[in-house]
């Protein structure tokens, strides 16, 4: 059996509870790969991970490798092939008597965490390690982590796959088609309400989803807010944030990165811009991505953008630029 080392922060959180079994079940990395899992938590919580590990053992998967828990990020990410940065400080938490509500405060607090985590990953994770940031604000956390890691052989992603799955589901429902007939769903920009889910380049059985649906007023006025506000709708209905679907999206992202992307399809994740589509270099931006046969990840070029798309991409770009500005002291 092959062997792979996977580190997960926020190991005792809601998303991790759905995510961890699927990382070691053979589903994500294949039935021929044993997965050593390092669970990382803050010191106050790390003891709880013993219970999580008991449950993972009790799942009895053939691919289960060595399972460990630590509050030391350096120990957790050493020789990691994959690092899933799920943990972060949520909005609403009280720190030093102050309730953290503002996105700018959240950016700064999490920025400090991602500086240390990035540094440890750059130094200690494998040279070709892949890092997926789930913890919010995901794009800017990834920007800070990547800059701090300063290791160009490693590849950083921020998760937008949940948005892509939500965007597909809404189109499938509107068009009354099976979700499997939807391909090429692109989430442009930030994992935030400014994201642009692209119905014009998404396809339903190979045809533009926008053409199949043939209702521009719905696409531009109803569809976008439906996708952009879906996370809030889940919280309102469930009384808790999306965890199973977020874990599923993380698994989807890892699988998409690890496996060849068929022509006519793409996967959605945010990576450092190389200037494609006029996006400022270095911003962690949601693009249409493809995994080549060589395993290399590339931004798919030549996607056509209409004026509506361009106006939406401008808004999300500006938001990401202002987030970058807010944490400029944390990135070199
Ligand atoms: P929980 O609050 O259930 O769990 C987070 C866990 O992270 C906690 O156990 C906490 O102790 C731990 N943690 C905090 N700081 C840490 C650190 N420095 N090192 C290690 N562990 C640390 O949140 P959960 O529902 O699991 O969500 C996790 C993150 O995912 C949140 O930031 C959330 O906003 C974000 N999300 C991102 C999504 C995306 O599409 N990118 C969608 C789902 C989710 O909202």
Q: How many helical stretches? A: 11
- Which stretches are low in confidence, meaning pLDDT under 50 for 5 or more residues running? none
DSSP strand tally: 16
Cofactors, ions, other ligands: ligand NAX
The neighbouring-strand order within the major sheet is: 3-2-1-4-7-8-14-15-16
Rounded to an integer in angstroms, the radius of gyration calculated over CA atoms is 19 Å
Structural class: alpha/beta
- Amount of beta strand: 15-25%
Helix content: 40-55%
Secondary-structure element pattern, one letter each: EHEHEHEEEHEHEHEEEEEHHHHEEEH
**Largest sheet composition:** 9 strands, mixed
For the residues shown, what is the average pLDDT? 95
First and last CA, distance: 41 Å
What gross morphology would you assign? globular
Write the layout of secondary structure elements.
Layout: E1 2-9, H1 14-23, E2 33-40, H2 49-59, E3 64-70, H3 73-77, E4 82-85, E5 94-95, E6 98-99, H4 103-124, E7 130-133, H5 138-149, E8 155-159, H6 161-175, E9 182-183, E10 187-188, E11 196-197, E12 203-204, E13 207-208, H7 209-213, H8 216-228, H9 230-238, H10 244-258, E14 267-272, E15 284-291, E16 297-299, H11 307-326
Parallel strand pairs: 1-2, 1-4, 2-3, 4-7, 7-8
Antiparallel strand pairs: 5-6, 8-14, 9-12, 10-11, 12-13, 14-15, 15-16
The chain binds ligand NAX.
Ligand NAX binds near residues 14, 15, 45 and 87.
């Amino acid at each position: 059996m092959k062997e792979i080392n996977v580190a997960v922060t926020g190991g005792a959180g809601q998303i991790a509870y759905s995510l961890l079994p699927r990382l070691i079940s053979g589903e994500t990395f294949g039935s021929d790969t044993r997965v050593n899992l390092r669970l990382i938590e803050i010191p106050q919580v790390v003891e709880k991970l013993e219970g999580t590990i008991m449950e993972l053992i009790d799942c009895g998967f053939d691919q289960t490798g060595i399972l460990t828990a630590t509050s030391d990020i350096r120990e957790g990410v050493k020789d990691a092939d994959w690092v899933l940065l799920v943990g972060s400080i949520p909005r609403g938490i009280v720190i030093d008597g102050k309730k953290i509500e503002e996105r700018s405060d959240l950016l700064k607090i999490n920025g400090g965490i991602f500086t240390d985590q990035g540094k440890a990953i750059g130094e200690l994770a494998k040279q070709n390690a892949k890092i997926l940031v789930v913890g919010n604000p995901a794009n800017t956390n990834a920007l800070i982590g990547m800059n701090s890691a300063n290791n160009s052989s490693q590849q950083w992603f921020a998760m937008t796959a949940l948005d892509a799955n939500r965007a597909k589901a809404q189109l499938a429902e509107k068009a009354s088609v099976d979700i499997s007939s939807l391909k090429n769903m692109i989430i442009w920009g930030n994992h935030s309400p400014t994201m642009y889910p692209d119905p014009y380049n998404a396809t339903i059985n190979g045809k533009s989803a926008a053409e199949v649906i043939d209702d521009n007023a719905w696409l531009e006025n109803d569809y976008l807010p439906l996708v952009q506000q879906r996370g809030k709708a889940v919280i309102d209905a469930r009384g808790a944030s999306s965890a199973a679907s977020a874990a599923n999206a993380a698994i989807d992202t890892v699988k998409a990165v690890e496996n060849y992307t068929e022509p006519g399809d793409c996967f959605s994740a945010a990576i450092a811009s190389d200037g494609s589509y006029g996006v400022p270099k270095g911003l962690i931006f949601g693009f249409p991505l493809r995994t080549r046969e060589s395993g290399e990840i590339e931004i798919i070029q030549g996607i056509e953008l209409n004026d509506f798309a361009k106006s939406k991409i401008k808004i999300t770009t500006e938001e990401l630029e202002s987030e970058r500005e807010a944490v400029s002291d944390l990135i070199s």
